[in-house]
Amino acid sequence: MKKRINRTIRISKYVIYKETLVDFKEHFWSFVGAFIGIGLIAMIQSLYLPKVENTFLIGSFGATCVLIYGAIQSPFSQPRNLIGGHLISAFVGVTILKLLPDIIWLTAPLAVAISIVLMQFTKTLHPPGGATALIAVIGTEKIRDLGYYYLFAPVLSGVIILLIVALIFNNMTSKRSYPTNSKYTRSFRKKTKN
């Protein structure tokens, strides 16, 4: 067990080091991906939804952008974790809210804690998922009124937009490869070399 923990720590240090190297090209692509991903969601919000309240653009998407555009090699950034983590957490948050609607001191920590355990169990750990669960519980009245529709819009639709942008911009240079070690990435690399 200790050997496994030490290996995990070594790998984590390497990933963090590699992701924080000063390479202006990498920073440029991180910026472009995050800007376009959040920009598309914000544009849909502003064009098609009431301007009074943001229901399509949730805070956890900002943290997701840090991972999928800035730390693309992290296991937490991979598509399985991105989609699964957000959807599981959204489902947990809405379910907890429906079961215990007016007990925030219990619903908020319960939603986050159960989300973490379910993401760990399903191997879909995505740290912004905890915020997605929390938003379902403590969000504005419009967010809470969405009920299980919250899973589809804003969560799933927003995550799909961010993933598509990540697949495009994280594979535009030879130094960036997303998702890590996937068939998609290998076939994309072969096509661009020919």
From TrEMBL:
Residues 22-179 form the HPP transmembrane region domain. InterPro entries: HPP (IPR007065), TM_HPP (IPR058581). Coiled coil: none annotated. The keyword Membrane applies. The chain crosses the membrane at residues 28-49, 55-72, 79-97, 148-169. The keyword Transmembrane applies. Signal peptide: none annotated. Keywords: Membrane, Transmembrane, Transmembrane helix. It holds the Pfam family TM_HPP. This is HPP family protein. It comes from Seonamhaeicola algicola.
